[in-house]
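General statements about sequence and structure are easier to judge against a single worked case. No coordinates are needed to read the tokens, only the vocabulary itself. The sequence in question and its structure tokens are set out directly beneath this paragraph.
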Amino acid sequence: MKLKRITVLFSLFLFCFAAFAEFSIVNPVPGTWANKQTLLLVLPEGEIAYYSVNGSDPLVSGFAYDDPVVIDVAGDVEIRIVSIDENGRRTQKSVSYTVTEHSREEDTKSFFYTFLNSPVYEYVPGSKIAIPSSFNYAIGEEDGEGAVIYLPAKTLSLSSDCSVSRYVPLTLTDGNSFWRGIIHVSSAYGIINERSVPFSVENWTTISFNDKTLIYSIDGGWWRPAGDPVEIDRYESHTIRWQSAAFEAGNPIYSFELPPRAVLVEDRRADGSVVYSATQSGTYKISVSSRNKDNLGVKNTLSPGLFSEMCIDVFEGDSVSEKLTFSLYADNVYQGDLSVRYRIDRRPPAPPALIPSVSGFWIRAPLDINIVSEKKSRIYCAVSSPLELESDFSAPVPSKDFFDSVALEKYTEFKGNILRIAANPERPVYNKISVYAQDAAGNKSIPSEYSAVIDVCNYYFDSGSNPTLADGTKERPFTSFEQFEFTRFLPRFINLHVRGKLVMPSKRIVLPANCKISGSDGACLVFAPETSFDLRVSSLEIENCAITKTSTDRKEAKSLFSLENAILSLDNCEIAALFEDSGSVVQSASSIVLFKNTGLVSQARSYSSLISASDTRISVFNCRVSAVAKTAVAFSLHGGHFELRSSSCKTVGSMGRIAELFGCGCRMTDNSFAGEISLSRTSQAVWTDPSVKIFEDSNNKTQGF
């Protein structure tokens, strides 16, 4: 028995072509690159290639292609390639790309010099490639849909026992420029230690006896000469014996144990690599079968190195899928082939696309987020707890760092594709979501994040701001009331924040929703002659505002506020209304009017009142009230309820009263009534008809009536 031991390089190039496939251009690929590119071809066995740069005929003035080579040309580049196979058949291809060289920062020059200084970067499994933190990277060939997945920088490595040799494209980007280079992975070493025996095994079950000078016996059976192949069952062990055909006493008898047929075992490690071995691993060794040439179409012959186990690995971010045939050896004697189709997928899916139903950061409506991801991937979503923000004009807008610090809740699988984010009907709310996709191999995409402040009710006005950027948010407030569209869809409640002077449009303003106007920094609403608020089945609350109306226009509105089945509330306001002929600050029917801590002056030539109402509940607390006209009546009410407390009221004119009440209830306490009446000094400050029910009337002081 003779043994020989030879060490060889096991090289498995994972580029998949048919046996007679055309050559492939691995690199360059079309695009704009910041570095000069390497020409890398994969040629079928027996094929040669020639190449030229920028238009010339490769067979006339080209170069023979032997190994990867840097094309030392910048700008627009066209490479033409012609290959010739063993039969003289020619195949032509070309590739065009652009090189715009870009300088690198000092802290990355060392990496780029090492990585791009040679046609290929030689990599030994087990070593590390540390990508600079300022870059994203994409590795390997494009996926089946042509998408390139860029990942944050990290340190790349393969298992130290990786048994694969291949070329791997690596693309780096800083967000503006793109660098592309080629990594060459050098394979591990296999050992051939084939045992010389006088028989051969084909396809596991066929035994051929080749040496006619020997006789053979299987499992203790009759001795037989070499001849036709023998079929045996490989589900159990067998013993093959042989000796010289010159059957003599004392002849040495040799034997070999055939173990049961092997089964390939696939072990997926935690790092993503795959290790193949055979059952009864102490007996069997594996190698790559020469049959892989038909599958891989590589230019090098595959070496039959023997391994106890073979590791296949890819870099994080890469993916490889292939059919592979192994040759199995028992005690270093070939037994048969076994095939597997493996897939090592360490490439995460593309980050989900988050498409909001409304664009922008400050949103005026509930949001529907359409989540678009790769087919067959699962979606996992994390949301923040809704964070209510201060709505006051004086409260500063939170910084980006503040928003970034908002924590997300736990990721959970999301079954649908539309994520609904509700709105708070009264407060601005910040919402943040994060979504990632997970494929069947367990790879997780980079999370996609989306955040927005949903504020359906708060609008801001400041006439001193830039009108070209105005959108009604606190950062970019409206500069005029006309910029606010009352006709669009509005929630049931809106809060208008006013800073400084705001000129109101000269028209009737119909409020379709309940509204609050909050003033700050000397807020003043300037009413034009025809300006009025028309409230129908709605409410209006105004606080911390001055309201002025001056008019010499006979087409003017007869009131500042017109109510029907509505509510009007004024708190800490100052109102001064000047009408040309006659007018009332408030005209009301079947409504509620509430004044607190407010000063009101109404002046007209003929008739002036502050509130002229029917079937209305009027409540006035701690206010200063003045009506000035030939006929001046501060409050006029037909039906409803009138309540006046802790207020000072004055009328000035030829005739006047503080209040005229008809058929209503009345409560008046702690008030002072003053009149400057020129025609009648005997009139009453408060006049009531017999149907009025007075529930309270105390501590009211009267002067001038």
